[in-house]
Amino acid sequence: MLTSPLPVRRSPHFDLHIDRIGRGEPVLVIPGFGCGNWLFKPIARQLQPRYSFLLPDLPGMGASPDAGCDYSFEQLADHCHFLMQRLGHPRYHLIGISMGGFIAQKLLLQHGEAVASCVLLATTAAHETIEAIPLLDETQLHAMYQMEPAAMVRANSEATVHPGFAQRDPAAYQLLLDQRLRHVAPLRSLLRQRRAVARYFESPVPLHLINNPVLLLTGDADRLVPTQHATQLADQLPNASVTRFAESDHWFFWERHHETAAAIATFLAGDKATESQAE
């Protein structure tokens, strides 16, 4: 386990477990709400010959302990950046998935000079030109955790993957269910994440200040963060492009993992495409 202390604003205790896959150019991958680093590993394994993926479990997720108190995404972005510095990566690529995209935006604003390029998957932003998305409140999260775990996982998965995924790739769909059931987040840590999300949406993010190359990936049938959010984000980011994946939902990077890996590899290699559609 690779850990580091938080150099600034140390009220929360961040002790992040990190897995490394590959030995090439460093890529920091920040996972989404309630998920550990397992959700990106299938793609990381496809790309490992060229890239070294640093995959943290966020506080309370996977093998990382709870932060001990509430925190902000600014604090977590600082910690992730300084951790990369301590690991010997003064410059690196950045990937943020869903909620991880919120943290990635903060990191780009606070330490953008260290980020060579950024990929944002299935995400949105707090901005006056971008429509809000519905969020589960704490009462709803408490109610969800009253469900039997397997039923909760299946219900959450059915709400975030394309209805055709189970028929198209039943083995991959079952693996997703198994992984989500194996890694159910502790409710206490999930509530801390939810509060950090609420704080994130309190103030608009100055997206126009992010000059790094950004690739926005989205499923064309995403019900949680509809695909137009990628276009709205791209309109505000000075150096952004969009790729959409056909017949895929919020978890398109599992549903279309080969196509997602190919899009990421092309972008990280420096071939910055304009808006495109992945069939």
From TrEMBL:
Stretches assigned to the AB hydrolase-1 domain: 26-256
Residue spans crossing the bilayer: none
Sample GO molecular function, one term: monoacylglycerol lipase activity
GO biological process, one term: acylglycerol catabolic process
UniProt GO cellular component terms: membrane
Domain of life according to the entry: Bacteria
Pfam families the record matches: Abhydrolase_1
Alphabetized UniProt keyword annotations: Hydrolase
This protein's name: Alpha/beta hydrolase
The organism's taxonomic lineage, starting at the top: Bacteria, Pseudomonadati, Acidobacteriota, Holophagae, Acanthopleuribacterales
